[in-house]
């Protein structure tokens, strides 16, 4: 039989990566080979068990496609691929080459377009075609001769989907309706919008009634109520979504029978790759054997998949990120949930019941706590209820009324508990719950264990929603929030509207799961030797940040309103100046049109670079280099600066003023930057401009709240250099600090080999750039860009620096060597950053 297998490379690579994420395969040099091992196993299993006559593997490229041109947000919400996965791709392509299987990729097209084109051509030539992928979108291509082949999971079962299976899965009559389904329901993975508020179930009903998207839109006026409004308002998005979801089947690639034919692998090349990747078992089992048939020995087990729900590309799925109303397309959902796990969750709706719970809380040492509220902004939400858990499988939920005075009265019953200092309060992102309570006059005074922060120290990279952590560490899928209040969008409800029985199960489960995660993470913090950082830095800091967020800072909207008007006038002046110098009016906010004016009309740079979408690069770095060539460039930069200041800060900051306080309350993020650095958002206080005069005007709007308050500015004196001097023990730098000398002038004197009195301001500026650049690993290229010297001069400055401060160089080299041996870098207080590929 002529059987062609077409592999969707990236879908299978993601699948392989996450299949082994909990027990990564590392070589003796620390290289993660999850992807390479998993993909190779899948490839061998396919060849052995399915006996294909022909095969090819399709890859995506980095080039933009027509879909990106049609909709700039296409795939914009995709997480950046893990570094281990990216670095695995060249190895996987070598493995495919060693198996003598062709690789198909073409700029401007995605792998599914290539697979779709080849599949239909091969089918027309009498082949049975199997598209090897977990991606549900391929359902639109299925026919009697073209099928989806989903490799086996932990159950060892392969799923093959033809027209019957696809139609049953989607609840449709024919596979052509898959595209219309996607057009209506959208696709969160690819960021295809669909019709707002329409999910898979609703889309299936509409298809059953109207048979096609076109017919639905033609009869949209017949639909009543909110659904009718959604369909009519979503017409354009639906049509766009249909185009985005349609797999292209006329890609300029050809099906070459001879080229695609299964051949014996290049055993020499395969041996070299297996040796490099340390695939000893694979090498022993397969090399020297006929891979087209079963080996004499043991067949390798199917890849063991983790209990983590993932999307079609193997990415772990967070709450609210599922593709449909059911977790279709997931590699393997967690095996446990509220329906099959023993649990006892109590609804406490009376004072006597609450009193019994308070008595229990008074005698417990560790208590998991969670709040249910009307929104996600802790400074603008109301309490709907509280949940507690004292032992796994058991939880308590206390509903709180919309009458805020009544809610405060109930909270008062719990005051003694909240003010206990001898108890450990456990929560997931507990700062949010603390802030909510602060608005009701309640303070949590006990010690804190935040499961989100604990996981952050255990695994600094990646996501850490409670749902994801529960799946990964407990093999348990919590009740999705969407089951209670619906999907995000205009139609989403609030927790206040949910019936008590449902919210009791949901809220008590949250407290229960968080308690169970505390048990797992407590051990892992010790095993990873990061418990001191958690206990001494992260946990105590939660209280400080909660206090800071609660206080907020006052903004004078009148100052910003006046400045917004001035900026608006200045923007028009700069814009008109650009048009005069260009000799043509165009859309200045369009990079494509701007590039054409600068490089085709004005010809400012004959060697102008283009981006992967084919338009000229017009970023700030490009324009800065051209600023001396034409006055138009300076005016473009002014236009951009003013426009950004106005839209990002001046017009946005007043919208963030809290209605209760008249102040802005930022959110500080402890668990985002892998280095341990804080960040903030709404607003991002680190980004309030300071470098330019126009930017500094914005800071005038930040004012003390009244006459009883003042602003105080405090700063450390060259703190980073003092720390590097202490860590490295470099006596030259230590002595300079002890003598109270200007460290930058001293460095300049040493690096430029002149007396201190001969140091010029320019020398000091360069030395300052070297001082701070060195400790952050600046290269000769980076330093030359920073201070405007040649690379050779920059290299000389760096070399001279290390001659004068030799112990800093030794310390840096020693740290790299330590990281190579241990697999992680470590701060002086014990925070770890794992660097498996170092």
Question: In words, what does this structure look like?
Answer:
- The protein is of the alpha/beta class and 838 residues long.
- The chain contains 35 helices and 21 strands.
- The strands form 6 sheets. It has a 6-stranded mixed sheet.
- Strand 12, helix 18 (430-438) and strand 13 (447-450) form a beta-alpha-beta unit.
- Helix 4 (83-98) packs antiparallel against helix 13 (267-277) and helix 29 packs across helix 35.
- It is globular, with a radius of gyration of 31 Å.
- Residues 289-333 have low confidence and may be disordered.
List keywords for this structure.
six-stranded mixed sheet; 838 residues; 21 strands; single chain; 35 helices
Strand content: 5-15%
Q: How does the helix and strand content classify structurally? A: alpha/beta
Mean pLDDT: 87
**How many angstroms does the end-to-end distance come to?**
48 Å
In quaternary terms, these chains amount to single chain
Q: List the total number of helices.
A: 35
Number of strands: 21
Radius of gyration: 31 Å
Helix content: 40-55%
Main beta sheet: 6 strands, mixed
Q: Could you list the spans in which at least 5 consecutive residues all have pLDDT below 50?
A: 289-333
Q: What would you call the shape?
A: globular
Strand order in space, largest sheet: 3-2-1-4-5-6
Write the layout of secondary structure elements.
Elements: E1 3-8, H1 9-19, H2 34-50, E2 54-58, H3 66-70, H4 83-98, E3 103-104, H5 111-124, E4 128-132, E5 146-150, E6 159-161, H6 163-170, H7 177-185, H8 200-210, H9 213-218, H10 225-233, H11 235-245, H12 257-260, H13 267-277, H14 280-286, E7 336-337, E8 344-347, H15 351-363, E9 366-373, E10 383-389, E11 394-399, H16 404-413, H17 415-418, E12 424-427, H18 430-438, E13 447-450, H19 451-458, H20 466-474, E14 476-477, H21 482-485, H22 500-527, H23 531-551, E15 553-555, H24 557-582, H25 591-601, H26 620-626, H27 631-650, E16 663-664, E17 667-669, E18 679-681, H28 693-699, E19 702-703, H29 719-728, H30 731-738, H31 743-752, H32 761-775, H33 780-787, H34 791-804, H35 806-822, E20 824-826, E21 832-834
Parallel strand pairs: 1-2, 1-4, 2-3, 4-5, 7-14, 8-11, 9-12, 12-13
Antiparallel strand pairs: 5-6, 9-10, 10-11, 15-16, 15-19, 17-18, 20-21
Helix pairs in contact: 1-2, 2-4, 4-13, 7-8, 7-11, 18-23, 19-22, 20-22, 24-27, 26-27, 29-35, 31-32, 31-34, 33-34, 34-35
